[in-house]
């Protein structure tokens, strides 16, 4: 009976993480739309929705702590519980960063936050990071190690786009001034950190499933 209850708790942790993953994907995509398409109400919804993501993290932590206290899981079960706590933290940080993007868009309204000269790069960066985030949430749900290992190479493209933005800001095409450069630098950092969290989510899943760190595995 105890074993069934432990299984029930770990299954519930998986469900909560899936809900949290969906919430942060929606928040990030909405923040990008608010930023690139100048939708202040959409930005407000992202900001207002952040406490719900925080609440999901708290629920994961409470259930995980309860599971450890009551059942003292070991081996693979313990990895599942610990990974749930760590993954919830990663997802909450993504939610916070999505909120920061939405706040930047809202702060500049009705003026655009992204200069036209940088728009194409931000559109591509938004799409790349959104795809990585969605893939990491799929990994959380499916525990697909092969898919998880793809995130590292996906992140290389984000790093390249990040460098392209700085090349633009320090080049002759940039005539938008220092305040716009500061805004874009912060936005680029937010995007880069979200991509890093997506990679970390995948790495935690790999360790949870295999008991080995990703660098020890080969495709």
Automatic annotation (TrEMBL):
Keyword Transport (UniProt): yes
Gene3D superfamilies: Phosphate transport system protein phou homolog 2, domain 2 (1.20.58.220)
Domain of life, source organism: Bacteria
Keyword terms, alphabetized: Cytoplasm, Phosphate transport, Transport
Matching InterPro entries: PhoU, PhoU-like_sf, PhoU_dom
Location(s), subcellular: Cytoplasm
Pfam family, one: PhoU
Residue span, PhoU domain: 18-104, 123-205
Task of the protein: Plays a role in the regulation of phosphate uptake.
Subunit structure, interactors included: Homodimer.
Record-stated family: Belongs to the PhoU family.
Protein's recorded name: Phosphate-specific transport system accessory protein PhoU
Organism of origin: Pseudonocardia lutea
């Amino acid at each position: 009976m105890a074993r069934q209850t432990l299984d029930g708790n770990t299954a519930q942790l998986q469900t909560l993480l899936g809900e949290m993953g969906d919430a942060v994907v929606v928040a990030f995509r909405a923040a990008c739309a608010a930023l690139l398409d100048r939708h202040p109400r959409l930005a407000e919804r992202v900001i207002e929705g952040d406490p719900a993501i925080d609440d999901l993290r708290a629920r994961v932590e409470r259930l995980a702590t309860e599971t450890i206290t009551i059942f003292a899981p070991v081996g693979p079960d313990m990895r599942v519980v610990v990974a749930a706590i760590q993954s919830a933290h990663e997802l909450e940080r993504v939610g916070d960063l999505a909120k920061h993007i939405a706040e930047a868009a809202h702060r500049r309204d009705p003026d655009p936050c992204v200069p036209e000269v940088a728009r194409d790069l931000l559109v591509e960066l938004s799409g790349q990071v959104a795809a990585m985030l969605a893939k990491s949430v799929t990994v959380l749900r499916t525990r697909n190690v092969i898919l998880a290992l793809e995130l590292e190479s996906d992140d290389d493209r984000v790093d390249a786009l990040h460098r392209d933005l700085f090349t633009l800001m320090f080049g002759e095409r940039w005539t938008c001034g220092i305040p716009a450069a500061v805004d874009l630098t912060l936005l680029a950092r937010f995007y880069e950190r979200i991509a890093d969290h997506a990679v970390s989510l995948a790495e935690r899943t790999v360790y949870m499933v295999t008991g080995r760190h990703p660098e020890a595995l080969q495709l």
